[in-house]
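Ticket #403: bound-state structure for magnesium ion.
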Amino acid sequence: MKITAARVIVCSPGRNFVTLKIETDEGLTGIGDATLNGRELSVASYLDDHVIPCLIGRDPHQIEDIWQYLYKGAYWRRGPVTMSAIAAVDTALWDIKAKAAGLPLYQLLGGASRTGVMVYGHANGRDTEQTVDEVLRYRDMGYKAIRAQSGVPGLEKVYGVGKSTVFYEPADADLPSEHDWSTEKYLRHTPQLFDQVRAAVGPDIHLLHDVHHRLTPIEAARLGKDLEPFRLFWMEDATPAENQDAFRLIRQHTTTPLAVGEVFNTIWDCKGLIENQLIDYIRTTVVHAGGITHLRRIADLASLYQVRTGSHGATDLSPVCMGAALHFDLWVPNFGIQEYMRHTDETDAVFPHAYTFQDGFMHPGQVPGHGVTIDEAVAAKFPYQRAYLPVNRQQHDGTLWNW
Ligand code: CS2
Ligand code: MG
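RESOLUTION: The complex was predicted; output attached.
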């Protein structure tokens, strides 16, 4: 089989998505997600200008060789743009290989290791009361695991709290909007939020929280300790993780489980965290960490240290990534949980898919490939629209901070 053509489809059904479509001389096609929120066109260009010319004429079955060619052949290794582009190629090739075999992708990875994929949903509210109501609503929808994020008294806009409680799209402006931040107000508010959420929802629902990189290590240690009575499933992105050793300080002070990695793009970003057991869940994804091929390597390293997977699954990762992720999740032995932020109906119309949600669990479906397609005619109705993620500034003096 030979790759005869490949093209990048950029569309914006409510938010921007970048999709790579690979065609072969046997009529089989495969697609991969290449969406990098706020930098979509960089990945589109990387694919169009630098990757696709190298793919034409290659055997699509040679997934590993093509991965190595794109990773080592670029000379300039790693980084979110490069690895998202490689991920899109990898995902599309696994899609083709599974279709050629007439099997759902998870069967090629090693078959199902579980009956379904436990997911967590996003409950958010402007204040504690609305957030508690939203957590109860997600429980009533059947979720066994629910992330809770709320507004912080005294802060106008914070990460994780959308204009509506149903959909949350952080890339909310043509140029970065500016949020204000106060660690003190956040650290005062969050423990009482979870005190009320846990009291309302009871002991059986897994509760998660995303700190979103906004604390220093000692502040994260304090929050982890304060949250221990509420038995969180995880506290995510407690502090920026460029310095993997920073998690030692958090680990010394709290038993609240730690998750990190949605912004990581290779195994090198998390090798120290995993080998030193500084985290409990690794959040790397199909779309941003080099595709199925590389994500398996990260999961295998993690399994040596009892670190489980907990892949990122926000709405800025397309249904193509979600579909591929669910096949990975169904197979991976050290599975932990999968994030599932529902896409809008517009997005789902662009990306018809076989995956399903029922009673807190998802399944990728049984169709050959990863089970997600792109309706290019519908996609064409939604042209690209520039949108950036916000930035944070310290409320007291305007210092630029982590959003
Ligand atoms: C968040 C994301 O879902 C999460 O855990 O960290 O919503 C993140 O803010 C976005 O994916 C950024 O584009
Ligand atoms: Mg996150």
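RESOLUTION NOTES: The mean pLDDT is 97.
TICKET STATUS: resolved
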